[in-house]
Amino acid sequence: MRFSEITIRYPERTNPAVQHFSGEIAPGECVALVGPSGAGKSTVLAAASGIIPHSIPAEMNGVVEVCGTVTSLMSVPEMSSSVGTVLQDPDAQIVTGRVLDEVCFALENQLLDTETVDRRARATLTRFGLTEIEEQHPGILSGGQRQRLVLACVTAMRPRLLVLDEPTANLDPEAAADFYEMLSQRDQQGVLLVEHNLDLALSIADRIWELDATGRLVRDEPVTQTTLRARTHRNGVTSKIDAETEVSIPSLGMSSPGLSRASGALILNQVTWKPDRKATPVVRELSLNARRGEVTALTGENGAGKSTVLRLMARLLRPSGGSVSWHSDNGRAAGTKPTLGFVFQNPEHQFLGHSVRGELRHALSLRGMPRRQIRLEVDALLERFGLSGYADRNPFLLSGGQKRRLSVAIAFAGRPELLLLDEPSYGQDPNNLTLLLSEIRAAADSGATVVVSTH
Hints:
Layout (H helix, E strand, L loop, with lengths): L1 E8 L8 E7 L5 E5 L6 H9 L1 H4 L4 E8 L2 E2 L5 H5 L2 E4 L12 H10 L5 H14 L15 H14 L4 E5 L7 H11 L6 E5 L3 H5 L4 E5 L5 E6 L4 H9 L9 E5 L16 E8 L9 E8 L4 E6 L5 H8 L7 E6 L13 E4 L12 H11 L4 H14 L15 H13 L5 E5 L7 H16 L3 E5 L2
Parallel strand pairs: 3-8, 3-9, 6-7, 7-8, 11-14, 14-18, 16-17, 17-18
Antiparallel strand pairs: 1-2, 1-4, 4-5, 9-10, 12-13, 12-15
């Protein structure tokens, strides 16, 4: 893979997303691409996979070559035999109604015979720990399980170059470590990797490319020369939510111990939930007490039910058993429901408008804020969440990290009493991670009840 003086500009944007970018990946070499949120990392990956210029409307100057062939002269199907791509959003790559079919579909597109497809698909599912759910519909899987499924599909195709955009963002620590262990055992397979977890990326990377905020390459060095500096930078950031309470859900269908009901704001009492009467419970006899002014971290492995618990708390799901209640300071049930701010695991699921400013304006209007105050509050939210330069940008055209910060800003709009955040740190560089954690801490300090699902 070779990039030669690549400059990429999106329609209706004055400045290029990537400028004069050049670099080369040798067979078997792994390159970690790093830089701040919005620096153009995903744009470089899109050019490497041929999505730019073939599928995404963007003006590209310069040359990208894969296996000695210029990508602009190849179709995306032609490139797929050489390049395997994992996007930030796993839902964008899932097309079938069964886990096993998804892996088989990837291999069938390579025109392999039936026996080879079945053998390789099942071996890959075993490798990624997905055999037990091979008959399930991908739509009912957790975000982490869907991400593992996409990784399995791409890996099964055995491309010569892997292009990975935050492949472990939704994986629990054990699953992420297992994936990088597998990736380290590749055979002459090149890798171009975007990963905010530098400890994981540097454990297998041979080189590091760093982009600055303008999309220019400012560092191209062997990892041995940058490891200490990169890890020192990362260690200056708290990588975990500063939580007063941590509730761990051991695994799918398991329960948690009961917690005290004293002075609680949000109380789950022996809550069980399953999708239908005959199904195995996703959550079983879960009891917890999330208090006002505190951050509660909800942890557990992929598929343990963390996102389901947040939906139960928000009353988007009705418990199959037990109760979810909002309590006043004296411990008695309040007469009204709390104002709620919710962050979905996929930020795009909560975008409705055509601009970042419009999204925030709409959220504040739903809170009943007077029009004369909305403009001032929108400007304040844009500044607080590092989005001031993107106020007029379409939310769907933001980078992954920017989309996440916008979804959190929407949830925070109007200062709700209850904040439920599903993986709010996804896709954040160290500076923006610090920003988000400080906002979460400040919300709790101001009296909100905050529950965060996190790895």
